[in-house]
Design brief:
The structure holds two protein chains of two kinds. By secondary structure, chain A is α+β, with helices and mostly antiparallel strands. Chain A contains nine helices and nine strands. Chain A has two domains: 35 residues; 206 residues, Alpha-Beta Plaits (2-Layer Sandwich). Chain A has a three-stranded mixed β-sheet with strand order 8-1-9. By secondary structure, chain B is mostly helical. Chain B has a single domain, classed as Formate dehydrogenase/DMSO reductase domain (Formate dehydrogenase/DMSO reductase fold, Up-down Bundle). Chain B is 69% helix and 1% strand. In chain B, α3 packs antiparallel against α4. Chain B is globular and about 70 Å long. The chains are: A alpha+beta, B mainly alpha. At the A-B interface, β2, α5, α6 and β6 of A face α5, α6 and β1 of B. β2 of chain A pairs antiparallel with β1 of chain B.
C-alpha cells in the first residue's frame, strides 16, 4: 500500500513539475512566483492594494523634496543629461486650459491595475505584484523599451549609461528599463515610500500612502470623503496613484 | 521560348566589389554595436523621450518590405500569374534576407542584446511583440520550406500552391502584427488606431515590390544576364497601384483623425507645423513616395521604359523611409496629454515636442542591416539556383 501511495505521490509530483514547465512556457508572470524568480513578487500580500493620494493643493511648486528623497533612496542620480538621465519621479505643472489655474504635483509610476507596460512587455519582465505594485524584473528585461512607448505617464526611464555605486535594495542595470518601485523594499518591511516621508518632513504632507483595499485606512477614508481623479481617466487603467485638488 | 534554367551567378570582379562594400558596412555595424554596448545608449540620439530612433526606422522598413517582397512569389503560386513564376525563388530569398536584416538591427539595438535567448524562451502572450517573435521566426521557417518546395524536382504544383497560400496568409498576419505594434499603443495620439495594420500591409506591398525591382535589376546587371523591359514595366504598373493604396490608407488615417477634435493637435503637428516631420510627410512620403512614382509610371512616354519602374522604385524606397520616420519618430516626438483639459510642463519635457537628432552609431547600425539583407540575397544567388539565366521578354512571355 505504502509503495503504491508513494508511486502516486511521485506521479503527482511529476504532473506538478509538468504544470510548472507549462506555466514557464505560457505564463511568465506566474513563473516569477513559482520559481521565486522575484523575491519582490513572493513578498506581496494579495489582500492589499497599495496606493498614493497626492493632494495637489498642499504641494508646493518650489519644493522637490520628494524627487530628491527618491533619488537618494534608490540611487538614480544622473549624469547631467536630462534627456537620458533616469527620472523615477518628477514635478510637473498642470494648467487648466479654460481657467488658467496652475497646479504643481509629482508624477511617478501610477501603479495601474491594468498596466499597459505589463501588457506590452514581450518577456514578462514588467509585472504587477499581487498587491498592485508594478515592477521590472531586471533579469529578464531585454531593453526593448516597448513599455516606455506604452506608458501614458512617461514614468519609465531607460538606463543609458554604465552604473556604479548601486543601492543593494534597488538594483539597476545598464540597458534595462526602470521606474518608481513605490519603495517596495520599505513597504515590504512595513514602512512607507521615501517620497511620502520627505514630503511630510518638508511640512507639506501632500502625499498619503496606504492600502486602498482597507476601508479603514486613512487613504481610503480620504478618498471616500473628498473628490479625487486619476491621470488620463479616459484610458481606464485603474491607477493606484490618485490626485486631489487639481 | 526556352525552358527556364536557374543557375548560380558567377563570382566576377564587380560581384566581389559589391560584396566587399556590403561586408564593410556590416563590419561598421558591428563596430557601432560594440561602441554602444560599451558606452550605453547615451552615445546615440535616442533619449527617454524618443526611445525608438533611427535603428527602428531601418528595422521596421526592412521587416515591412520583407513581407512585401514575398508577394512576387505569392502572385506566381497563389494567384497563378505564370509570368512571375521565374521570379518566385528570388522573391522568397529576398523576403527572408530583408527580414533577417531588419531583425538584426532590432536585436542589436536592444539594451541587452545578450539576452536574446530570454526573448526567445520567455513569452508574455498579451504582448504583440512576443507574438511577432513567433510570427517572424515562423515566417523564416515557412518561406524556407516554400523555397525548398519550389526548388525541388518533381514537387507537385498543388503542394507548392498550398505552401505558398500558407506563406501568403502568414505574411498578412506578420504585417498586421508589425502595424499593431503601433496600433495597439493606447497612450500616444499618433498611434492607437486599427488602421495601422492595413496601412502597414499596403506599405509592405509597395516597399517590398520596390526593393524587389531594384534588387532584381541590380543582380541581372551584375550577373550580365538579360532582363526584359516588359517584365520590369509590368511590375512597375503594379507598384503604382500599391503606392496609390498607401496614399489611400494614409488619407483615411488623417481624415479620420481630423474629424475628431481630440486629435487636432497631432494632426496639426504632422500636417502643418511639425517642422521636419511635416516636411518628411508632404515632401518625402506623399510627393517622393507616392505622387512622383505614380506619375513616372503612368507617364505616356517615360512610363513605357524599364527605367521609369526603377526610378519609381527608388522614389518609393526613399518615401517609404520618410513615412516610417514620421510614424516612428514623429509619433514619439509629439507630447502626450497627462490630463485632458490641462496643459502640462516640467523639467522632463512634458508638454513639449521632443527633439531627436540621430547620431552615427544609429545610422551605421541601420545601414548594416540593409547591407546584411543585400549580402545574404547576393550570397544566395551565388550558391543557390534561384536566378533564371534568361529573363528576356521573349522568354517570359511578356507582351511588352
Amino acid at each position: 500500500m505504502t509503495r503504491i501511495k508513494g508511486a502516486e505521490l511521485s506521479r503527482r509530483d511529476f504532473l506538478r513539475s509538468g504544470a510548472a514547465v507549462a506555466s514557464a512556457t505560457l505564463a511568465p508572470g506566474v513563473t516569477l512566483i513559482a520559481f521565486g524568480g522575484s523575491q519582490a513578487q513572493a513578498a506581496a500580500d494579495a489582500g492589499k492594494r497599495w496606493g498614493l493620494l497626492i493632494d495637489a493643493g498642499k504641494c508646493d511648486a518650489g519644493c522637490s523634496a520628494c524627487v530628491s528623497a527618491c533619488r537618494d533612496e534608490n540611487g538614480w542620480g544622473g549624469h547631467g543629461n536630462p534627456d537620458t538621465d533616469a527620472q523615477w519621479i518628477r514635478k510637473v505643472t498642470l494648467k487648466n486650459k479654460t481657467t488658467g489655474h496652475e497646479t504643481s504635483m509629482p508624477v511617478m509610476c501610477q501603479h495601474c491595475a491594468e498596466p499597459p507596460c505589463v501588457d506590452v512587455c514581450p518577456t514578462g519582465a514588467s509585472f504587477k505584484r499581487a498587491d498592485g505594485i508594478v515592477l521590472v524584473d531586471k533579469h529578464t528585461c531585454i531593453g526593448c523599451r516597448y513599455c516606455m512607448m506604452a506608458c501614458p505617464f512617461k514614468a519609465r526611464s531607460f538606463v543609458h549609461e554604465p552604473i556604479v555605486n548601486q543601492k543593494s535594495h534597488a538594483p539597476r542595470g545598464q540597458g534595462t528599463v526602470e521606474s518608481c518601485t513605490l519603495c517596495v523594499h520599505r513597504v515590504d518591511a512595513g514602512g512607507t515610500p521615501a517620497c511620502v516621508e520627505a514630503c511630510a518632513g518638508a511640512g507639506h504632507e501632500a502625499i498619503l500612502f496606504g492600502d486602498l483595499n482597507d476601508p479603514d485606512s486613512q487613504i481610503s477614508k480620504r478618498l471616500a470623503e473628498y473628490p479625487s481623479a486619476a491621470l488620463r481617466p479616459d484610458l481606464g487603467l485603474g491607477q493606484g496613484v490618485r490626485y486631489a485638488n487639481l | 521560348m526556352e525552358r527556364t534554367l536557374y543557375r548560380e551567378i558567377k563570382a566576377t570582379g564587380p560581384v566581389w566589389q559589391v560584396a566587399i562594400w556590403l561586408g564593410l558596412f556590416m563590419a561598421a555595424m558591428l563596430a557601432s554595436v560594440v561602441y554602444v554596448e560599451h558606452h550605453g545608449h547615451a552615445v546615440t540620439g535616442m533619449t527617454n523621450h524618443v526611445v525608438w530612433g533611427l535603428p527602428h526606422v531601418f528595422a521596421i522598413f526592412l521587416i515591412v518590405a520583407a513581407s512585401g517582397a514575398l508577394n512576387v512569389a505569392s502572385m506566381a503560386s497563389v494567384f497563378d500569374k505564370v509570368q512571375y513564376k521565374p521570379l518566385a525563388r528570388l522573391s522568397g530569398v529576398l523576403a527572408m534576407a530583408l527580414l533577417a536584416g531588419g531583425l538584426a538591427v532590432l536585436v542589436l539595438d536592444l539594451g541587452r542584446p545578450d539576452r536574446l535567448l530570454v526573448a526567445m524562451t520567455t513569452y508574455n502572450f498579451s504582448s504583440i511583440f512576443a507574438w511577432n517573435v513567433l510570427l517572424y521566426t515562423g515566417f523564416l521557417g515557412l518561406v524556407a520550406v516554400y523555397l525548398f518546395a519550389q526548388m525541388s524536382r518533381g514537387m507537385p504544383p498543388g503542394a507548392i500552391k498550398s505552401i505558398g497560400t500558407l506563406a501568403f496568409l502568414w505574411r498578412l498576419a506578420l504585417t498586421t502584427g508589425t502595424g499593431s505594434i503601433f496600433g495597439w499603443l493606447v497612450a500616444r495620439p499618433g498611434y492607437d488606431a486599427a488602421i495601422m495594420a492595413p496601412l502597414f500591409i499596403a506599405m509592405s506591398f509597395s516597399f517590398g515590390l520596390a526593393v524587389f525591382i531594384l534588387v532584381l535589376s541590380a543582380l541581372y546587371q551584375l550577373a550580365d544576364r538579360p532582363l526584359g523591359a516588359g517584365l520590369v514595366i509590368r511590375m512597375g504598373r503594379l507598384l503604382a497601384i500599391f503606392a496609390a493604396l498607401v496614399l489611400y490608407f494614409t488619407a483615411v488615417q488623417h481624415l479620420t483623425n481630423l474629424y475628431a477634435a481630440e486629435h487636432a493637435g497631432f494632426e496639426a503637428f504632422i500636417l502643418s507645423d511639425g517642422g521636419i516631420y511635416t516636411t518628411l510627410f508632404w515632401g518625402g512620403q506623399v510627393l517622393i513616395g507616392g505622387l512622383i512614382p505614380i506619375a513616372m509610371i503612368y507617364h505616356p512616354t517615360f512610363g513605357k521604359t524599364a527605367n521609369a519602374a526603377r526610378a519609381a522604385s527608388v522614389c518609393v524606397v526613399l518615401g517609404g523611409f520618410a513615412q516610417v520616420y514620421v510614424i516612428v519618430i514623429g509619433g514619439q516626438a509629439y507630447p502626450m496629454e497627462l490630463l485632458p483639459g490641462y496643459t502640462v510642463t516640467s523639467g522632463l519635457g512634458d508638454g513639449a515636442v521632443a527633439a531627436y537628432r540621430p547620431r552615427w552609431p544609429e545610422l551605421l547600425l541601420g545601414l548594416g542591416g540593409v547591407a546584411l539583407a543585400l549580402l545574404a540575397t547576393g550570397l544566395a544567388a551565388k550558391v543557390l539556383r534561384i536566378l533564371p539565366t534568361n529573363l528576356s521578354d521573349a522568354n517570359t512571355g511578356q507582351e511588352g
